[in-house]
Amino acid sequence: MHDDRKLVEERIDRMLRERIAPAVYAARIPLELAAWHVPGEPVPLEEALAATYEPFAAGTRWGRPWSTTWLRATGTVPGEWLGRRVEAVFDLGFVGDWPGGQAEALVYDLSGDPIKGLEPQNQYVPVTGPQVGLMLEMAANPDILADGFLPTPLGDLATAGDEPLYRFAHADLAVLDEEVWHLRLDLEVLRELMAELPQAEPRRHEILRALERALDVLDIHDVSGTASQARAHLAAVLASPAHASAHTISGVGHAHIDSAWLWPIRETQRKNARTFANVTALARDYPEFVFAGPQAQQYAWVKQRWPEIFDRIREAVKGGQWVPVGGMWVEADGNLPGGEALARQLVHGKRFFAEEFGVECRGVWLPDSFGYTAAYPQIARLAGMDWFLTQKISWNQTNKFPHHTFWWEGIDGTRIFTHFPPADTYNGTFAGSELAHAVRNYAEKGAGTRSLLPFGHGDGGGGPTREMLERARRLRDLEGSPRVVVQPPDAFFAAAREELPDAAVWSGELYLELHRATYTSQARTKAGNRRSESLLREAELWAATAAVHAGFAYPYDELDRLWKVVLLHQFHDILPGSSIAWVHKEAEATYARVHAELEEIITAATTALAGTGTTPWVFNTAPQPVESVPGGGMARLETLPEPGAPVTVEGTTLDNGLVRVVIDGDGLLASVRDLVAGREVLAPGTRGNLLQLHADFPNQWDAWDIDAHYRRQRTDLTHADSVTVVSRGPLAGAVRVERSFGASRVTQTVTVRAGSPSIEIATEIDWHERQKILKAAFPLDVHADRSAAEIQYGHVHRPTHTNTSWDAARFEISCHRWIHVGEPGYGVAIANDATYGHDVTRTTRQDCGTTTTARLSLVRAPQSPDPEADQGRHRMTYALVPGASIAEAVDAGYALNLPARVVSGGAGPVPEPLVSLDGRAARIEAVKLADDASGDVVVRVYESLGGRAATRLRASFPITEVTVTDLLERPLGETLAADADGSVPIGLRPFQILTLRLRRR
Ligand SMILES: [Zn+2]
What is the pTM of this model? Predict the structure, then answer.
């Protein structure tokens, strides 16, 4: 037989494109249009309904960036269309089919009831009666990444300009020719399947010839009249069942909507309304449809602003078609949120879904966050989660992750059943290529038979479409294709776990070999988050202490609200620094307000405890004693002993008997002598706190990525404008160093305090560089095989060598409040109060000694998507702690982030800490009153050293019962008994997190 395959394939493609697709709508008449252009930001519906509308026509240019235009569309369905499927069809001027940065609209009826969204790939509104009246709230969202990662002014209302972005294409009443529509879907599904089948397979040729026969009977001049005949020729190939060994794909309807990214938060809210309206409409038409919606925050917005849509969601949840998933407040970044914040993401997310829908979420749903902390398995399990889903690790640039279904083991040994959809997308469409890729890619073939595929257009693309569900129907049981079943994620995970109970184990963090600059970009947003987390801890501790000891009214509602604001900003494009200028400007302003409100709560609570007067009281929020003030407790300043030997300052050498720090004429640390250990901390011939400037121009993804080649261009900032002693002891010695380079300035104050080996470096940067990164380097005379970095409720080790491609790819690492490098018997910690990005490398010197260099990534200057990212002023403090053990690193991290507060108070009795623990292995991470307002005190503790801890909990109030709870403060069935002295003995395994609920007498 002659081989004409290519010719037939080309014929199919042209027919689809030029004859069949245009025939899907059989007849069209234009709708009558009138428009009102909102002068400023979006307005409430009532205001729009009451506005004055002007005539508007197809072809009109509309929409300055970020503006809103309301469109009224009216018309009458012609009598001859009676009994046919009529739709209103709109093209707002869509550009291509990219769903994110585009024009979009929410369609209401004339009474203001929201009906459905309009997006590039979802342009219809069903018409039910003869008279049509619709209101469109059209958003002129600009396409920020239209030109790739080039700087654009469009991401900020102040610089976006007034030039209209779109040309309105059409608004029509149209008849949907269902037979042609189905023909198109039949052809597409078979054409795409055929393309994935091997040339040698008979099935491929059977499909080809069936398609050819269908086209042979299709009249190009009467597609509508011959579509049925054409479909008849496809029935047999569509009915042929899947192979016995066919892979099964569990399709889960989804719409990944970034809570802010290339648009501001206010636009996310409208994206939610549009997409959620689409989903509930689709659920009515397709009974088998199941949609998984994460991010409680987005539901909360819709509940408040579009209650009609929220009611429909409630109905769909009841009917099993809408499944709240993830159990988090937002899809947070997977590395940067602190332990307590990550716990609260799950607490507030799960609680919202339980209270609103009676649903207990069973899995973590984080398809898009940029790597995942090794603390996750335990935190998730303690929130009652059984499974974990992401696909982002498929974006690795270097190493291919070996599993798709596996047990993920965290730092404490807890395991959680985990799945990466092998389709490598969270915006599935059931395209043939996507399904075939999933099958080819699935790593557990031979042991497992199934995978999950989230399908639906994200980011304002409107979610799943009816075409996707039609495809799923055709793919249920089709020869040559994987089987497709649409089902809730819990059903998939139950089936996957049943067939793979002994799946492989991956231990430790899920490091994303990409997007490593998200530990550093938009440093002010990151500093705002860290400070918020610290202030929330302080506010809860002192409010709880004051409530128990001074009758203070615990601010439940305020803390609940403030937590949720902070949790929202941990979304995986806000905290990582990958959003437009608008988002980050707003985030900085929001953090300032949050900090002010938390300071008010703290002031009220500490005043309630200290009383009024002029006596200075010291409040120590850190869990360990600081300068003789008990952890989580307070003291009167005048009763405190002297902190230790005084600091002496000679020239620019600072000495407190524990360390001697020599600052040279360049303002660098020329020597750091540990006087207790009797050794020099810095490597021979090196200087510490060396600021290093690198060119930082990644191949793509500017705000997200730092590429390994950045290291090869470096300028050491060795010139100081001035080096000045600013404090001469006895309590503190300090030297200020000023440097300028380019248009930027850095002022650093190096401080040594009496009684502490810690060398604090308070840093102010006025930053005006472009596409550069600034690092602070400490070359240490330490032989460290690995670094330890604080993560949520513990720490993680990473090698300092680059033996394998996996080690080499981790050239930039994230950490929370401290990083530590050491050799047996000696270690050094570096604590920080606002920095997350670090790197640790090592070199061998001529004397065969090892120099381990730890660096902090202080600030970057990417230009996309925010061309002004990180420009301007920054403040941060870091501290070098010579001779530090891991326990002392933990201390240093707390001390720097939770500095003691001095408050004017009275002469009354000083209360004991509300709760405390013996020893240094177990730490208290949170103290609060129970969220149920019962008055119970909730304490979250963890083992911080990676070993076993035997400790005692002591409370300064009478306890009747101590209950072990999950993160949501729900009892887990275990109670702890107090000894005769009232203390409660506690045993913790390595890195165990334990939540205790203390009932007060
Ligand atoms: Zn995302």
Answer: 0.98
